[in-house]
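Milestone 3.1: sequence recovery, worked example.
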């Protein structure tokens, strides 16, 4: 553990150190000295922001050799921060420097034009919007934004959607025991949100409404997850067993990778690092042993290599019977 912590800090340093330097530089622009020496403070702020982001880009690049577009992107991000991030007197001094404004505008225009051309070319080649956006933006950010958008769409418009069961597949639900617990949790959350909002508004209305907005967003997020559990059941398909847990997990398990149905299992197996635990807020009622490792890439979190899959299915007997029909070795 002691060795892992420094390694993690070293990996995070190219992100944390530039953010710290930029935060300190921005704080400097709000001092009396910066107000009295606005031009010097503006140039110093611009230099620190640009230098921090460019050095961070080089540090994160493979073999410390950042590409031209990556450097241009760092320059574009620095331009935005410089133009809007400083205190008012320093910002006015920046706006009074035509060469600095021209350099920032040119950097932004070049980056937007280059990125736009890459996105258009990717879309024309048949790439999805998410894949095209990941070319010009950090892939983790694109994935996060896509996930948030998907969950919110389910929360707002998922009520009318039927279960997603393709032709030729059998769907097995796992939401009937789960949704009542989620709705009870949502009711308790609504009561808590109302009480805390009432208490906060006595102190500061702005803080109270920010808290209220965050609470509503969180409730919608949970509703979207719940709708995902209902809409996306586990599927027995022609291609294999498709293990789905709402929008969080979607793993296709080839039938020839299923070695056995585990007749009995305990907490040690369910909680093992190489077990995909499909059960949510409950104990699984079925477990499959695999004859090889499969890689799971959940919507959130790191990928996982699994040798077992534990599931909670509403009608587990029917599920295991349907699975046995597709996997002859389970009947031996």
């Amino acid at each position: 553990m002691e060795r892992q912590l420094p390694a993690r800090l070293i990996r995070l340093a190219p992100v944390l150190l530039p953010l710290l330097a930029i935060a300190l530089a921005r704080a400097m622009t709000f001092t009396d000295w910066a107000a009295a020496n606005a031009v010097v403070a503006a140039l110093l702020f611009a230099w620190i922001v640009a230098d921090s982001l460019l050095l961070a880009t080089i540090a994160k690049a493979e073999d410390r050799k950042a590409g031209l577009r990556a450097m241009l992107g760092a320059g574009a991000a620095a331009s935005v921060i410089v133009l809007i991030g400083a205190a008012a007197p320093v910002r006015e001094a920046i706006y009074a420097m035509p060469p600095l404004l021209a350099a920032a505008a040119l950097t932004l225009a070049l980056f937007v034009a280059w990125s736009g051309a890459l996105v258009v070319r990717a879309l024309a080649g048949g790439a999805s919007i998410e894949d095209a956006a990941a070319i010009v933006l950090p892939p983790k950010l694109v994935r996060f934004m896509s996930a948030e958008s998907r969950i919110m769409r389910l929360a707002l418009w998922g009520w009318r959607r039927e279960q997603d069961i393709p032709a030729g597949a059998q769907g097995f639900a796992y939401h009937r025991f789960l949704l009542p617990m989620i709705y009870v949790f949502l009711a308790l959350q609504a009561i808590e949100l109302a009480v805390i909002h009432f208490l906060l508004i006595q102190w500061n209305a702005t803080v109270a409404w920010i808290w209220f907005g965050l609470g509503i967003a969180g409730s919608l997020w949970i509703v979207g997850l719940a709708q995902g559990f209902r809409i996306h059941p586990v599927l027995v398909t022609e291609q294999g067993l498709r293990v789905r847990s709402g929008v969080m997990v979607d793993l296709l398990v080839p039938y020839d990778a299923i070695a056995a149905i585990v007749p009995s299992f305990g907490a040690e197996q369910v909680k093992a690092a190489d077990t995909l635990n499909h059960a949510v807020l409950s104990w699984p009622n079925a477990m499959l042993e695999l004859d090889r490792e499969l890689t799971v890439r959940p919507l959130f979190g790191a990928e996982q290599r699994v040798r077992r899959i534990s599931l909670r299915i509403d009608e587990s007997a029917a599920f295991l019977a349907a699975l046995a029909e597709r996997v002859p070795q389970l009947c031996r």
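The radius of gyration is 26 Å. The CA atoms of residues 169 and 329 lie 20 Å apart.
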